[in-house]
Amino acid sequence: MTTYEFGDIVLVEFPQTGTESPKRRPALMILDIGDRDVVLAPITTRERVAGGDAKIVNGSGAELFRESCVRLAKVAALEKTKLHHIWPASGAGP
């Protein structure tokens, strides 16, 4: 089973409020203790000013195409089967 490190950026099928269809979006890996689930925080390109939102600074190792914010107040525990792609925290390519 794949294990992830804090700070990895992954693509994941996030559940969406108000719809049964999930949306594939980037997320920041918060916790992986080696079981079937991980704890993630969604990443968005919409500028946010709410508590718990933080900008991802260029040069942080994240291979994001646009300036983004991580939504730390919106963490979710999801099954690893929902993950599709990974950019390791080390900044090395997949």
Plain-language structure description:
This protein is mostly beta strands and 94 residues long. It has a single domain, classed as SH3 type barrels. It contains no helices and seven strands. It has strands spanning 9-14, 23-31, 37-44, 53-56, 68-71, 76-79, 83-87. Strands 1, 2, 3, 4, 5, 6 and 7 form a seven-stranded antiparallel beta sheet that branches. The chain is globular, with a radius of gyration of 13 Å.
Outline the secondary-structure elements.
Elements (H helix, E strand, L loop, with lengths): L8 E6 L8 E9 L5 E8 L8 E4 L11 E4 L4 E4 L3 E5 L7
Antiparallel strand pairs: 1-2, 1-7, 2-3, 3-5, 3-6, 4-5
Give a quick summary of the entry.
The protein has 94 residues and is mostly beta strands. The protein is 0% helix and 43% strand.
